[in-house]
Amino acid sequence: MVRITVEASSNYDVLIAEGLLGETGSLAAEVVPPCKVLVASDDIVTALYSDTVVHSLQDAGFEVEQFTFPHGEKSKNLQTLNSLLEYAAKKQLTRQSLFVALGGGITGDLTGFAAAVYQAIYRYPQPFWLQSIHLSEARLQLILTQARTWQERFFSPGWLFAI
Question: Residue 97, class by beta-carbon neighbours within 10 Å (0-12 exposed, 13-18 middle, 19+ buried)?
Fold first, then answer.
């Protein structure tokens, strides 16, 4: 396995190896304790790779939820972002939960931004949100309305796998 450290706003490792998806769970468990994970990918990548990643995460003790969206540039929009955020809220993800982008390009952009916005719910807005696991439609609408002001809150990935 090749490990490359990327120095950005926060450093992260890029791991390169054949068959690495089957080790997703054990590698994730080295970084964080098992928790709830949301794996997001488009319909093509889901069909090809999600079983491997989901089983690996589950075998390592993670509770896995999956969100699939239509492939293509047309999915890079606020409607898909809203659907992803609603799904995360419905599945009761918390600040300790992980968002995993299975795929690149649009998937990484969408999942990374959704993670930043979702995590911002617990870090920045009014304190009563810290007590709430479920998000109402009105709160999500407010979040999406404010999303443009949160774009700078995008975080670098914790790690990146390349297969």
Answer: buried
Nearest to 135 by CA among 84, 96, 99: 84
What is the model's pTM? 0.75
Assess whether pLDDT exceeds 80 at residue 146: no
What whole-number distance in Å separates Cα of residue 8 and Cα of residue 161? Answer: 17
Alpha-carbon dihedral 14, 161, 40, 60, rounded to 10 degrees? -110
Contact indicator for 54, 22 with CB cutoff of 8 Å: no
Kindly list the structural domains of the chain, giving each domain's residue range(s) and its CATH number in brackets, ordered by start: 24-157 (3.40.50.1970)
For the record, the structure tokens of 114 come out as: 């959704």
Average pLDDT over residues 25-41: 90
CA distance 140 to 142: 5
